[in-house]
Amino acid sequence: MTSHHINVKRPVGTSICRDEKPGPFAHFRAMDPDTEVVDEKSLRKNVPRRAATAWRRLVSYMFEPEDGECLAALRIAFGLLMMIDTMDERGFCQADKRWMEPMKCYFPLFDFIKPLPGRWMCLAYGAMFTGVLGILIGFHYRISCAIYAIPYWYIFLADKSLWNNHSYLFGLLIAIFSTTNAHHNWSMDRLLGKIPSDTPSSVPRWNYLLLRIQFFIMYFVAGLKKFEPDWLWGYSMMSLGHHYAFTPFRYFFSAEFVDHWIVHVGGFLIDLLSGFGLCFQSVRPFTIVVLLAFHGMNATMFTIGMFPYVCAAMIPVFCEPATMSKILRTAVECIWNDKTGPKSVDYKPPTRTKQNAIVAGVCVYTALQLFLPYSHVLTQ
């Protein structure tokens, strides 16, 4: 039997369908030359729609209600520590000596801010102390935040010679707390009825997220700043291995080993990875233990005021608010025998326009805090 070979000419612009078995009578499918162009146009049209959907999901996520008692406890802890800071590192106890002959060292962008005469500076400190007391007890909360924040930033910017990173952090934290609803629980405003009775005890999630973002950036940027040869090779802070805080380590390692691998390399890894560890529930307990030890050792080795205590006190902001509130309420019940929980009121989010504005503000603030640590061209 003779086999006949049929030569089929393939039209121009066609190709064999690869999912079909080739054969003498294989089917051919014409390729539309405009298909790819149409697909690109449809994708471009879908980009704004997808972006809008993602934005709506972000806004909804950030305005989910969370238990507010944990935030109130953080407010109280922060207010108490800032009272001590006002008397100590801010210099209220030595205001007359410090500002009678102040150092003439100003910030480049704020050189127009000059310190007041010594006695007037004492009034600024008095306003700070009054404001932070109001924050602590939650009395006229928004006004108290302003009374504390304005003189704080004024004193901070009036003398560059006393600049340090944690003083800048404290100023940011008071700005953050002033925007939150941290006074909706455990406050004089709630007790005296200045907050309406139908106001829920819960707070929007962004109240916690803003604090989490701030501390995540603080840890992560501190790690990035340590990513340089002097630090990683152990030359930045030598002889710390002989400090009594590292006595347990010296039972197993030499002081030189402690200097290099625990102080420098360990400090680098703690700063770089702590923010991530606090965000994941599986490793959060271990991260909390490491950070408590880290901040405790910093408090014993360095004279850095309330910074390690503030960092340690703010760690619970990364925990589940409902869980922390249960722990706090149990403690309150044990101390005051008060078993009346917060009044359950349905949380009502603000208007969509206000929600969009708040979330946009959080995004801008986050971008700004990521930029400022590397803005030395502007600030020096």
From TrEMBL:
Q: Name one Pfam family in it.
A: HTTM
Give the residue spans that cross the bilayer. Answer: 122-155, 167-186, 231-249, 261-283, 289-319, 357-377
Major location (coarse):
membrane
Molecular function (GO) terms for this protein are: gamma-glutamyl carboxylase activity; vitamin binding
InterPro entries named in the record: HTTM-like (IPR011020), HTTM_dom (IPR053934), VKG_COase (IPR007782)
Q: Where in the cell is it found?
A: Endomembrane system
Q: Name one GO cellular component term.
A: endomembrane system
Which UniProt keyword terms apply here?
Disulfide bond, Lyase, Membrane, Transmembrane, Transmembrane helix
The HTTM-like domain sits at 63-323
Q: Highest taxon of the source?
A: Eukaryota
- Give the bilayer topology: Multi-pass membrane protein
Q: What's the protein called, per UniProt?
A: Vitamin K-dependent gamma-carboxylase
* Species name: Aphis craccivora
What taxonomic ancestry is recorded? Eukaryota, Metazoa, Ecdysozoa, Arthropoda, Hexapoda
